[in-house]
Design a protein that fits this description.
- The chain has one domain: MetI-like (MetI-like fold, Orthogonal Bundle), CATH 1.10.3720.10.
- Helix content is about 70%, strand content about 0%.
- It is built from eleven helices and no strands.
């Protein structure tokens, strides 16, 4: 005797699935936001402050054109070298003006955008080159590994600041060339770390098991090996990011970094050094942003490493 079960029409089934998906999307979004809030609340106060500062800098960089009180090249010759408003200066210039009457706050906001753009793009390029070469060395071994290690040792033995000065002086300067040059900084550290971790991961059971069932090398490394070594690579990236900010600041300070009329944090420090005694706010404001940004990224990077590494939990 057979039982007759009700059959749901396909249209009804698909409609039910679509309705469930539409109902679950806001729920997933709320759950993700709640999880992020719990994640931040569980962090120490110094880490929470670092995250808040990084978010603030990202917001300033994204909205600089909207929130800056003046254009970063707008002149106010009647208020040249005016001190900040809280020090008795013009109330229209909260952080004072520079030698041409340009608003320091407006220039600072646009400088944050350029410096973060250079640092993010340079760090991403550096990490991509380093991790790719490290994984290739661990996969092929033999002469490929020796070639990569030779390049790593060659890069580590060269004073990067001198090389950067020579390249910028010989080829001229543009923002694209400058970002590409920053992307060549620190890749050898990521390559060494990625190579060592990939060799260790290849000797573990999960990588061999996925390979045995027919997964391609690209799938093994992208979906299995890389997520398991990501926590250590994050620390390397968070070390490279503030170093690139400082390197960009140093080169711009020497006049070989970001070129006028574009402004950056190092560019502002370079101009402010000539007025250190008469108008110290020109140098102190961008210097404080550089210090706080690099310090915040370092703190958050160490915390992420502790949170993401299962061996430390």
């Amino acid at each position: 005797m057979s039982a007759h079960l009700p059959v749901t029409p396909p249209a009804t089934v698909s409609g039910s699935i679509a309705a469930a998906a539409s109902r679950s999307t806001p729920t997933r979004a709320r759950d993700g936001l709640a999880g992020l809030v719990r994640f931040v609340r569980a962090s120490p106060p110094s880490v929470a402050a670092g995250i808040a500062w990084i978010v603030l800098m990202l917001a300033v960089a994204a909205l600089a054109d909207l929130i800056a009180p003046y254009g970063y090249t707008q002149l106010d010759l009647l208020n040249r070298l005016s001190p900040p408003a809280f020090a008795g200066g013009s109330p229209g210039h909260w952080l004072g003006t520079d030698e041409l009457g340009r608003d320091v706050l407006s220039r600072l906001m646009h400088s944050v955008r350029i410096s973060l753009l250079v640092a993010f793009a340079g760090t991403l390029l550096s990490a991509t080159v380093g991790v790719t070469l490290g994984i290739l060395a661990a996969h092929f071994r033999g002469w490929v590994e020796q070639l990569v290690l030779t390049l790593v040792d060659f890069q580590a033995s060269m004073p990067f600041m001198i090389v950067a000065l020579a390249v910028l002086a010989f080829f001229g300067n543009s923002l694209t060339l400058f970002i590409a040059l920053m992307g060549l900084y620190g890749w050898e550290r990521s390559a060494r770390i990625a190579r060592g971790l990939t060799i260790a991961a290849n000797e573990q059971g999960y990588a061999c098991a996925v390979t045995e069932i027919g997964a391609s090398p690209l799938r093994v490394y992208a979906l299995h090996v890389l997520p398991n070594i990501a926590s250590t690579l994050i620390v390397s990236v968070t070390l490279t990011f503030p170093e690139i900010i400082l390197l960009e600041s140093g080169l711009s300070f020497l006049g070989l970094g970001v070129q006028p009329p574009t402004t950056s944090l190092g560019n502002m420090v370079g101009y402010g050094r000539e007025y250190l005694q008469s108008a110290p706010w020109m140098l102190l404001a961008p210097s404080a942003v550089i210090v706080l940004t690099t310090f915040s990224i370092s703190i958050v990077g160490d915390w992420l490493r502790d949170r993401l590494d299962p061996t430390l939990r």
